[in-house]
Amino acid sequence: MMNLFNLHTLAILSASTLLLLYFKRKRDSHFKRCRSKKLLHGKVVLITGGSSGLGRQLAIEMVNRGATTVIASPSEIRGRRAVDYIVSNSSCSTPKITWLALDLASKDSLKNFFYNFCNQFTHLDILINNAGVMFWPYDVTSYGVEYHLGVNHIGPCYLTKLFLDMLKQSKSAKVIFISSGKYTRAKEPINMETPSPEEYNMQNQYATSKLANILYAMALDKRFKSSNVPIKVFPIRPGFIRNTELGRRFNAFLTLLSFPFIWYYSITTKQASQTVLHCCLEDDIPSGKLYFNCEIQADGKLLTEDNMHDVVRKTDEIIENAFSET
């Protein structure tokens, strides 16, 4: 009797597993691939947060296409390790990959990074603002901004401003802001002030930073178009990615419990990289639009002109106050 019970249980588990794998494969088949075969010989690509996850995968993709690729992250040990990983996983016979130190929460690090980059490279063709944090305990950057907003938005926007002159020298420069579908959970009116520890809500702060990414990228692209500046800007939702360090401060026990959910609904870094590659490599697609799965996404209710102007004004004010030399 027990053997029959065990066989019955095993049959149910096997059938359930096969069914789950079928639906998972069917779900994954909906993700599109970048069709461009464009090579990037002679181009310089900068990827922040390039030592792991999506950034590291993007570095492999860029190196494979012949680009001189720079990855930026805070830890030298992990940065050097990432360079070795990228070289060993690249199909390029002579991979051009460099690591430079960058901590987006540090005013001095941002400025030193720009100085070091300019000492090594004469131009920049593609800037991918990929680095970010999520579910970070209450903290404030060295320039006085809440950590999510600083690392995810203010730091990347300031970095983009620093590189504008260098980007303008390229005939077809592109700036990418990696956002998240979580932007839809941001609250109006958009609050970009640093909260007190008692008011702090990490999910709200993350959502606000990702909404700010999209709105600022859209506004920046409009500004460039109106001034005939040859730079295209793309905000991107890469998807729910597994095996990244974005939520490295998230509770480990809860992460373990949610593993089946994460596995089923998440995508690989290879899959997530496709939309970024699509926007970086295709020359005839509209810029200043939110992209997901290699397609333009319809503007959500938060992506309004009023919110755009509000975020740009607040972002520029924060940068002016935080990074002023006086």
TrEMBL record:
GO terms for molecular function: oxidoreductase activity. Keywords: Membrane, Oxidoreductase, Transmembrane, Transmembrane helix. The chain crosses the membrane at residues 6-23, 250-267. InterPro entries: NAD(P)-bd_dom_sf, SDR_fam. This is Retinol dehydrogenase 12. It comes from Trichinella papuae. The lineage of its organism: Eukaryota, Metazoa, Ecdysozoa, Nematoda, Enoplea.
